[in-house]
């Protein structure tokens, strides 16, 4: 496990840059955003060891399907997990651990600054997503209870319990475990001759 205090964080910066910029097969964060399947996902910024992304910031992307961008963002989270796994496979001395906090809701977006312009997003939804990260579980995706009705349409979620969230008191939180198989995906299907009438 890697600790940010190792070599005063210099190694963290070096490895984050390698992870974010290294053009290996499928494991670099920025390259993932170039894929069509993540067309509604935007990188906002990196802060220390945190990579922030958002989806649905373009109102036009929500007109056809108001929830599709939420699913894209979740798929992006799964892709980040895969990127870390691939990256760690080449590390000998330590492994990166990825914690992901996820939330959705209204945000304010804009460009701030005069000499050095910076695009950012603000709002309660952003703050809660950040808290989902800081109170999260290693190698898991944590979401607040309000995300369950929508995400539960495509993903299996497991209730973690109640955690204290600064500024929000106690919140019910869930961990996103995996995708729900589509109806046309048959898992361990029973051959027709072996089926029993009931």
UniProtKB/TrEMBL annotation:
Keywords: ATP-binding, cAMP biosynthesis, Lyase, Magnesium, Membrane, Metal-binding, Nucleotide-binding, Transmembrane, Transmembrane helix. It comes from Nesidiocoris tenuis. It catalyses: ATP = 3',5'-cyclic AMP + diphosphate. GO terms for molecular function: adenylate cyclase activity; ATP binding; metal ion binding. It holds the Pfam family Guanylate_cyc. Belongs to the adenylyl cyclase class-4/guanylyl cyclase family. It is found in: Membrane. Its cofactor is Mg(2+). One of its GO terms (biological process) is intracellular signal transduction. GO terms for cellular component: plasma membrane. This is adenylate cyclase. Transmembrane segments: none annotated.
